[in-house]
Write a structure and sequence with these properties.
Helix content: 10-25%
Order of helices and strands: HEEHHEEEEEEEEHEEEEE
Radius of gyration: 19 Å
Shape: globular
Strand content: 35-45%
Low-confidence stretches: 1-6
Number of helices: 4
Mean pLDDT: 91
Structural class: alpha+beta
Largest sheet: 8 strands, mixed
Length: about 200
């Protein structure tokens, strides 16, 4: 092993939605995919972290995160907007992917994260949606199109069509804090992150 090469920095990578950092462990995938003379697009493709549109000019999802239609992904390379995805990435570069409002309006997101855990990992995905005045937890769940509530408008029956088994249940967390049953009426603030996790009873 060449110790100098092993210790060389790899491109840093992060995904941010407003002030929320949703990078997780994805930086490792970028490091593993990096090689000299690779372009931004080739690196993102090789990492498996992104899904490009059919024409290859825009990003559909990043790190299992999708944006609502009125938002768009922006890629920055070491502080500058990477309009040209054929730019070559250097080891010391910093790649930052952020969400931006498609219009000139400020970005006012709320984030809905579905966490299927180890039991249903294919369900795990985050959805960035526009904040609305007086939006509640229930309002976000209903408007997402991914959640089916019981008649009492409190119990989650299915998420992305998945109904929990008898030993499983869907649990709600807001900004990493567990929500009690009456928490479904809580009002949300801009940049709140609501997580639905599949857990064992």
């Amino acid at each position: 092993m060449n110790n100098v090469a092993a210790g060389a920095p790899q491109p840093a990578f992060s995904v941010k939605i407003g002030d929320n950092d949703l990078t997780g462990s994805s930086g490792r995938q970028i490091s593993d995919a990096f090689k000299p003379d690779i372009t931004v697009k080739e690196l993102l493709n090789a990492s498996g972290l992104v899904t490009f549109s059919g024409d290859g000019t825009s990003l559909l999802s990043v790190n299992h995160i999708s944006l609502s239609p009125d938002m768009a992904w922006e890629i920055q390379l070491s502080g500058k907007t990477a309009a040209d995805l054929s730019t070559v990435v250097k080891r010391e570069d910093m790649i930052l992917i952020t969400a931006a409002a498609a219009q000139a309006a400020p970005l006012q997101p709320v984030i809905l994260t579905i966490n299927g855990g180890s039991g249903q990992p294919e369900l795990t995905h985050s959805y960035v949606m526009p904040y609305a005045e007086d939006m509640t937890v229930r309002g976000l769940l209903k408007s997402s199109g991914h959640v089916r509530l019981a008649e009492n408008n409190k119990t989650l029956i299915a998420v992305k069509e998945y109904k929990p088994l008898s030993n499983e249940e869907w649990k709600l967390k807001l900004n990493d804090k567990a929500l009690l049953d009456n928490g479904i009426d809580m009002k949300l603030r801009i940049q709140d992150e609501l997580e639905i996790s599949l857990v064992l009873r």
